[in-house]
Amino acid sequence: MTEQQTTIGEVFSAGAEEFHGWSPMLWDQVGQATAEVSAPSLGERVFDACCGAGASALAAARMVGPGGLVDAVDLSGALVAIGERRAGEEGLGNLRFHEHDVTAWEAPDGGYDLVQCALGVFFFPDMDRDTAKLGALLRPGGRLAVTVWEKGALGGWGQAFKAAVETEREWPGSPQSDQLARIDTPHGLACWLEGLGLSSPQVVRRDFAVPLTPAGAWDLAVGSGTRALLTGLAPAAVESIRAHFTAALEAASVTDLDVRILTGTAVA
Ligand SMILES: C[S@@+](CC[C@H](N)C(=O)[O-])C[C@H]1O[C@@H](n2cnc3c(N)ncnc32)[C@H](O)[C@@H]1O
Fold this sequence. Notes:
7 strands; alpha/beta; globular; binds S-adenosylmethionine; 7-stranded mixed β-sheet; Rossmann fold; 11 helices
């Protein structure tokens, strides 16, 4: 496991409670939308990469039925534990959670019918190389489904958070946003999937708005990858960023989270 991957898992584990607070309004909606496009069918074997609290894995497990199987894998032990609890509450015995690096996962005999990854590939150290590793887990003819933020998604929330962080520290460029920028349009995502050696790429777009309160906006910032931008700051600086963030959201009249996603599928 690389140092960068360990850090990503730790970031998401530290914010797991706030992350899961957004499950009903955001992550589960994205997971359901992903599974509607990836379309797991009865009896299939599915690998859910970067599963978080299980949003798309739970949806897939319902769709493959008791004769199917879903392996849900994430670096964050705290999120995996939440996913396990949710699967147990639903009695989904066909859904197994694992705390592991998805880029070092081994395929079962014959490979998976479907590999899906919602909002995860841009966190990989090398998005092309590491997503190709996910594709290699498929049986011949199996499907890869990748959901990403569309260009401009979460705009008002993201701009207010950036402005607030910049009151305390310089905004660092991030490899994740550089990687995402290559695949955040339907054309870019389809071409990228083809470039990985997969065929018949298709992209489905989806958008919806979620009402945003100041407390919810902050929870999303500390319960997702943006939490890393607060690491190492003194508590007073973090509180000051929170106050600036709330003020910036109000000044720009940001009352909704603007969710826009793309799900690309392609065949191995
Ligand atoms: C934005 S969250 C998305 C979680 C979930 N797919 C969802 O949509 O709710 C990104 C997740 O990717 C995970 N992740 C990033 N790189 C990973 C890797 N190499 N192996 C396993 N998990 C990884 C993080 O721990 C985090 O839980």
